[in-house]
Amino acid sequence: ISYYVGLMKININLPSVKVKNGAPMSIICHADISKSADFQLQHNFTIFKDGKLVFMTVSNKDDARYEVPMARSSDTGEYECTVEAGGKTKSSNSLHVWVTGMTKPILTAEKKEVLEGEVVKLRCELPEEVPPLYFYFRKIKMNSTPKEKYVFEAYKNYSEVEFSVEEGDNILQFDCFGKRHVQREFDTSEHSNKTLVTVREPFIKPALSVRPSHNITEGDRIQLECSTVVARMRDIEIILQKNKTILKSVRDEKVLKYSTVATLEDSGEYLCKVEQGRASKSTKVNVVVSELFPKPTLSASMNKLDENRELTLSCSISSFQKANFSVLRRNSNGDVLLETSRNLTMRVSVNDTGSYICKAEVKGIVKESKPVRINVYVSALNPSPWPSINYKHPSFLPSHGMSTVTLWSVICNHFSVIPLLAPVSKPTLSVVNGLPEVVLGKPLQLICRSARGTPPITFKFYKGNVTKEIVINDTYATFLDENVGQNGKKGYKCDARNNHSSGVKTSNILNVTVVGNFKKKMVVRFHVTVKAYNTRIKATISTIQHVIIKVISNSANICFLCAFSVVPIRNASLGSVPYGEVEEGSETAFLCSVKEGSWPIHFRIFRKADRDVLVFEQSEHADRVMWRKVTMSRQDTGTYYCMASNRANVDVKSHPITINGKLTFMVSCMLHHHNS
Fold first, then answer.
1. pTM for this one?
2. End-to-end CA distance of the chain, in Å?
């Protein structure tokens, strides 16, 4: 007997692989088998969905049919069939079947009637659907957008949520729908039945009243009353607050009352809130309090004065006269009453130093002025009334450069006896670099000093008669003039003053000469007679130029080389002989030179360390200087550099060089022998 199991295929009885949810579905497996006409052969048909057995039958026919009366989304998947006949097996290709649509969900609510502040518990179920599933719940109010929540359920075909019932919720409707994910797409069910929930108020919105209702002025008594109607008197609270500050609260009562004497600070928005469980309702009202009178102002005849001077303090109210005034002195233990009238006049001592205020009272309303600071000082010009203090700590002795006035100040401050105010001395004004001249185009820095005077001291700088800068410091102040013009000499001055009653002290006028900044030298010839050989003469040939005249010949009639300039230093360099490596104990010469710059030139050579060490310093009427280090030691090795400067006040730094030390031949041999 011979037979052949050939082509196999699987079909469904619809033209499309998409099947509508709820429709009947048949999956047919067909086998193409060749055999003898009178030969009977049994066929074993097996149908799989997603690799799992769903149908199996034995037949002598070439077809097998798997019937699904109502297709559900759970029937979606990959189907294939297998036929076994006479020991031979064949399998079909797979066929994907997609059951579109989902069953209609069923929604139930735990309660049909709730109170504001409670919650509604809902359950949504998708019968005959297989998880994972997405559930969407909606809370529907009239004339508003529904609120939606969703829950993912990986193992259940139902889900539960809670919705809170808020103020203003009356009649609520709820529904739900489901979704499932199929091959990168979502299937969505139709919406469930709508469930109706009725909401009852536990209490009504509170009423908040104010008496008087308008024209409230400082000093008036105002009353606020908040009330509500409650369904059941249990765990209810009424709260009155202003600017988030609770003024009063009551529990298990229907009315709250609050009373106070009105002040300006009582203006604002008041909120009455009633709470019970999760329910909350509130009412707002705005209160405006008119000012009865403005805050008083305290003025002083002087804020800083010497001892035994007369001080007058006056308290006043703008556009208001009838008030009860008082003047007080601030104290950490409580304000001290000094006078119960508008004005206070007294002769002061240092003990009166402090802060003062005044108060005004009308109709029980008390208002306070801003504090006024009064400083009373003892004049240091005559320290004889002071008690004798025998204190010989060396840091306070006049031998350490301290004036008598300053010494008295230090002693008194040290013992915390009494505040002392020394008047400022006449200030001195000078150029920071010491010379009363500046290179054209370069900034000019001035310093103003007052040798005596209790800080703080206010310094004021003038250029001509124009105030340029005001600085408050201890004993000195600096001023940088970055706009130096070409109009010759400039007159600068400064003045100084502190809190002493002696007033302002002014320095002498400082005339600063502006000199030219020339890059090229100009040669001029003069015929003069001199008596000294090789004499240097400094002459002014104009108001803005200096000339250095150097004798070239010692004859009676000689030629002078005239070099106009204050030429800034350019290109400093440092070299050494020997260079780089020297023997210990040998001599080394360092040469610092500049490419350009007016004489004299100030040369400095430094050795780098934790803090750079100045090893050589010299001024020369030359463009170079040599420093001989007679004996080099191991401590002298390292990195060196030089700096050069002149009256142009520009420091120019060379590139560094490194000096390494090596042992002498004799020492090297001795060490080698020792190590051997």
1. 0.40
2. 108
